[in-house]
Structures are given as C-alpha cells and as structure tokens.
C-alpha cells in the first residue's frame, strides 16, 4: 500500500503445490531499482524469468541514461514486457511498489498480460479475496459510492500501515491453506528500503 | 421405467389392502435425477461443492488399548471452514471413530452406526464389540458403492481385546496395529513407520500419536490447527480434546479496528420498516 512518503509491500514466503509445501523460505519479492520493488504471485518459474528480464533492461537503461529508473518508468516497462508475451504470457500477478519522482509512495497493480493501474493499495494471490475487503474497509474511506468523490486513500502513518499489513496477513493465514510460514515486509521510504520478516502459522 | 411398472403391478394385484410400502426397500441411492443434473450443468448451473475435511487421522494399539488422534481443520477447497472441528466421533463408550473425507458423510455414518450400536446394546444386554461397528459401517458404505465419501479409523477395546481398523469409502477394511488416513496420511505414516513398536506405554503412545498428527499438520496443507487425542482402555476412555495447540495466531493488532460512519456507502433510499402482522 502507498502512503504520503512511504510504500509498504509484503509477501508470504511459502512455496506450495497441491497439498504439499516445497519450501517455507521462498522470497517472492525482488528489488528492481533503488526505490522500486516488485512482488508477484503465480508461477514462480515465470517470475524468475521476468525478474531477470527486467533487471537486464534496467541495467541497459542505467548505461544509457546514467541514472536509476523511477517507479512510474519501471511500471511502464513491466507492462510492456508482459504484453510482449501476450500470446504466451508470464503466469505472474504482479504488484510494483516504490517512491515516485516526488518521493511520494506509489503502487501499481498488474494482471498477467500487462494491464496496469496506479492504486492506493492492492493484493494478489490465493489470500487476496480475504485481504482486499479488509483493506477496502480500513484504507478506502469514505465509500466510493458517495458523491462528490472524496480523496480515496486515507493517509496512515508508516507504523500503522505496517501494523495493518501484519494483522491482515495473520488473518489470511488463519483461513487460507496456501498462506503461511513467514511474511516478508519491505518498507520503502526516503532513507532506503527496510526489510522485516514476521513469523506466521506453519500449518 | 421397469421399476415403476413393477411397483404399480404389486399395488393393483391385491386391491386396496396392498400399498407401495409393501415393496421391499432396495436401499442405496436413486439415480433418477442424474439426467436432470447433467442438463443443468450444461446450462451452466454449478452444483455446490461438498466440505471435505482434508485431514490427518491416526490410530495405534498400545499395551493397554487403543489411542486415536486427529487434527482439527475442516477445509472447503483452499479455505479453512472450521479451525477447530471435532473429527473423533463417539460410537460407544468403549469405541471411537476418526473420520476423513466429506464432513457430512463421516458425521452421518458415525451417528447412524452409533445409534444402531446403542439399540443393539439394549437388545443383547452386552457391551458393544468393535467388529460389530466395523460390520455395520462396511456394509453401509459398500451398499452406497463409494458415493458416501467416508474414510474412517475405528478403534476400541471390548471383551475380546483392543482392536484397530481402517474403513475405506468403498467398504473395504483393514485390521492393523497402527493406521493413518486422510490427505496427511503419508506424513503421519512416515512417523509411525520409523518410530512404532509393539507394547508402547500410554505416555509413549500419546507422544507418538501427537508427533504423527503434528507431522500431518505442518507438512500437509489440508490439515492444521490443533491435535485431538482419544485413549481407550479396558473400562475407561479419555477424550483429550485439543491435547496440543501448536498453532496460535502469530499477530494481533494492538490498534484495533474502527468502523466509522460513512465506511459503508448508502444508496440514499429511505428505510421503510416492514408491515407488522395483524
């Protein structure tokens, strides 16, 4: 989710197939640039390939422009990369988070073929159906049904946002069998990227 | 169609005195509506899914009797429907049964056989035997040809000694010194195969059963939450509900949640209370 001057991005670390767990310690988050981080759910093989692809393109950009890519630029690049394989897609559901050129938090959410939108918060994966209603309720106030339209995203402080993310993951773990083990939480703000690992239920 | 003609013949041949109820019940399911269901599926009407328990259940025989164990998670596909359900069902004071498979089927079949055993106890004036429960269960499941999806671990101690059986949905049974069923059965059996031996003491038995269930809980996604254990010995049964709780919730928000007015949108239509009945 995005805040006034920070962005929080989190993913659980369980890799599972069918009813079995492959590993409890798998990172689904990748740092693409200084202030830009991507997390994905879906087929992890395609995710690895996509991360390599973007890292290579970012390196070329750095050589050509002598600077890091900004988050909105990376967002467009990711969209183009995904649509390039429109007829044999990357089976990944991505969320890109970071700080834009004004040092404000930004979150971009994608589908598998590159359709993207800048949003205040987003979730993907098997637990998304359990998490998004809670985020809708806590972050999106007032309701979008009311007119005239008011500022949709409530600015929470960084501590409150991280607290909400932890609670929401703990709740999703209770009810979704594919979510659990650990959650990796990354907070991106002006002073850099801070990483935190929180334990979740292992059953 | 042949069935329908037969019953109407019987109804007419004896005049008013004979009713369709005199036709002996054939038992099992009637498949008359299958064609209708197929037609509805083609039109896009999905049948509701059953709740499967996605389970780890185990049983073992120790020196004084039988110990049964089960996890407590009930799943509906990928979602946990019940975090603390009871999978060890009562059959008789000296016989208990763990159930895996469709939750409704295990509940119904164990309740039904439990009632039948009680009636049998009144009729015979004796304590129920495990083989009685076993025969009742297997003949019921066989007559439903596997459509009743109940996989059971039946254990108890009667006058002939301790017994442990597994019952499969199609009606076959096994008699074993240690047994596991459910989606977590492989994880639990791995523990049993390496650590089981004949003549375990009560504490060793409980520890082994808990370890096997924990293995299912942590390694199988269909099983989870807590460990239930049931120890049955000659003359005494101990049902240790939630014997272990190895999965507490890891984080509770200290901030709490506020639900302010305006969080839920209103359409603006006026509220009209329903008419009171006269």
TrEMBL record, chain A:
Entry keyword Protein transport: no
UniProt keyword terms in alphabetical order: Cytoplasm, Nucleus, Proteasome
Subunit structure and binding partners: The 26S proteasome consists of a 20S proteasome core and two 19S regulatory subunits. The 20S proteasome core is composed of 28 subunits that are arranged in four stacked rings, resulting in a barrel-shaped structure. The two end rings are each formed by seven alpha subunits, and the two central rings are each formed by seven beta subunits. The catalytic chamber with the active sites is on the inside of the barrel.
Source superkingdom: Eukaryota
Gene3D superfamilies noted in UniProt: Glutamine Phosphoribosylpyrophosphate, subunit 1, domain 1 (3.60.20.10)
GO cellular component: cytoplasm; nucleus; proteasome core complex
SUPFAM superfamilies: N-terminal nucleophile aminohydrolases (Ntn hydrolases)
Protein name in UniProt: Proteasome subunit beta
Signal peptide: none
PANTHER family named in the record: METALLOPROTEASE TLDD, PROTEASOME SUBUNIT BETA TYPE-1
Pfam family, one: Proteasome
UniProtKB/TrEMBL annotation, chain B:
Reactions this protein catalyses: Cleavage of peptide bonds with very broad specificity
GO molecular function, one term: threonine-type endopeptidase activity
Subcellular localization: Cytoplasm; Nucleus
One GO biological process term: proteolysis involved in protein catabolic process
PROSITE patterns: PROTEASOME_BETA_1, PROTEASOME_BETA_2
A GO CC term assigned to this protein in UniProt: nucleus
Active-site feature positions: 55
Gene3D superfamilies listed in its UniProt record: Glutamine Phosphoribosylpyrophosphate, subunit 1, domain 1
CDD domains: proteasome_beta_type_7 (cd03763)
Keywords recorded for this protein, A-Z: Cytoplasm, Hydrolase, Nucleus, Protease, Proteasome, Threonine protease
SUPFAM superfamilies in UniProt: N-terminal nucleophile aminohydrolases (Ntn hydrolases)
Similarity remark: Belongs to the peptidase T1B family.
Subunit structure: The 26S proteasome consists of a 20S proteasome core and two 19S regulatory subunits. The 20S proteasome core is composed of 28 subunits that are arranged in four stacked rings, resulting in a barrel-shaped structure. The two end rings are each formed by seven alpha subunits, and the two central rings are each formed by seven beta subunits. The catalytic chamber with the active sites is on the inside of the barrel. Component of the 20S core complex of the 26S proteasome. The 26S proteasome is composed of a core protease (CP), known as the 20S proteasome, capped at one or both ends by the 19S regulatory particle (RP/PA700). The 20S proteasome core is composed of 28 subunits that are arranged in four stacked rings, resulting in a barrel-shaped structure. The two end rings are each formed by seven alpha subunits, and the two central rings are each formed by seven beta subunits. The catalytic chamber with the active sites is on the inside of the barrel.
PANTHER family: METALLOPROTEASE TLDD, PROTEASOME SUBUNIT BETA TYPE-7
Protein role: Component of the proteasome, a multicatalytic proteinase complex which is characterized by its ability to cleave peptides with Arg, Phe, Tyr, Leu, and Glu adjacent to the leaving group at neutral or slightly basic pH. The proteasome has an ATP-dependent proteolytic activity.
Protein name: Proteasome subunit beta
Organism whose genome encodes this protein: Musa troglodytarum (fe'i banana)
Taxonomic path: Eukaryota, Viridiplantae, Streptophyta, Embryophyta, Tracheophyta
């Amino acid at each position: 989710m995005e805040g006034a001057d920070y962005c929080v991005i989190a993913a659980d670390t369980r890799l599972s197939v069918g009813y079995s767990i492959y590993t409890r310690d798998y990172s689904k988050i990748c740092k693409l640039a200084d202030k830009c981080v991507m997390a994905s759910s879906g087929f992890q093989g395609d995710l690895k390939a996509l991360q390599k692809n973007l890292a290579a393109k970012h390196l070329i950009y750095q050589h050509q422009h002598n600077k890091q890519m900004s988050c909105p630029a990376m967002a467009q690049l990711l969209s183009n990369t995904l649509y390039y394989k429109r007829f044999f897609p990357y089976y990944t559901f991505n969320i890109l988070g970071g700080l834009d050129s004004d040092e404000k938090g930004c979150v971009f959410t994608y589908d598998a073929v590159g359709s993207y939108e800048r949003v205040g918060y987003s979730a993907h994966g098997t637990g998304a159906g359990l998490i998004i209603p809670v985020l809708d309720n806590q972050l999106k106030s007032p309701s979008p049904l009311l007119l005239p339209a008011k500022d949709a995203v409530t600015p929470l402080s960084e501590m409150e946002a991280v607290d909400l993310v932890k609670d929401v993951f703990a709740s999703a773990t209770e009810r979704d069998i594919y979510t659990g083990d650990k959650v990796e939480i990354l907070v991106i703000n002006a002073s850099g990227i801070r990483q935190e690992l929180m334990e979740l239920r292992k059953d | 169609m042949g069935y329908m003609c037969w019953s109407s013949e019987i109804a007419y041949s004896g005049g008013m005195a004979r009713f369709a109820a005199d036709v002996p019940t054939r038992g099992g399911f009637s498949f008359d509506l299958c064609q209708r269901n197929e037609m509805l599926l083609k039109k896009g009407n999905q049948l509701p899914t059953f709740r499967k328990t996605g389970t780890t259940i185990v049983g073992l025989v120790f020196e004084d009797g039988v110990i049964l164990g089960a996890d407590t998670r009930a799943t509906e596909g990928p979602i946990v429907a019940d975090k603390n359900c009871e999978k060890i069902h009562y059959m008789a004071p000296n016989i208990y049964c763990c159930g895996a498979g469709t939750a409704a089927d295990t509940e119904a079949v164990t309740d039904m056989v439990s009632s039948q055993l009680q009636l049998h106890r009144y009729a015979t004036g004796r304590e129920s035997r495990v083989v009685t429960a076993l025969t009742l269960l297997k003949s019921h499941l066989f007559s439903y040809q596997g459509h009743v999806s109940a996989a059971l671990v039946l254990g108890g101690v009667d006058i002939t000694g301790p017994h442990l059986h597994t019952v499969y949905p199609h009606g076959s049974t096994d008699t074993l010194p240690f047994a596991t069923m459910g989606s977590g059965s492989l994880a639990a059996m791995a523990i049993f195969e390496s650590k089981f031996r004949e003549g375990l003491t009560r504490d060793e038995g409980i520890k082994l059963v808990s370890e096997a269930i924990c293995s299912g809980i942590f390694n199988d996604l269909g099983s989870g939450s807590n460990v239930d254990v049931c120890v049955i010995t000659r003359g005494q049964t101990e049902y240790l509900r939630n014997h272990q709780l190895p999965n507490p919730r890891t984080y509770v928000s200290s901030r709490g949640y506020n639900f302010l007015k305006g969080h839920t949108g209103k359409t603006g239509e006026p509220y009209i209370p329903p008419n009171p009945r006269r």
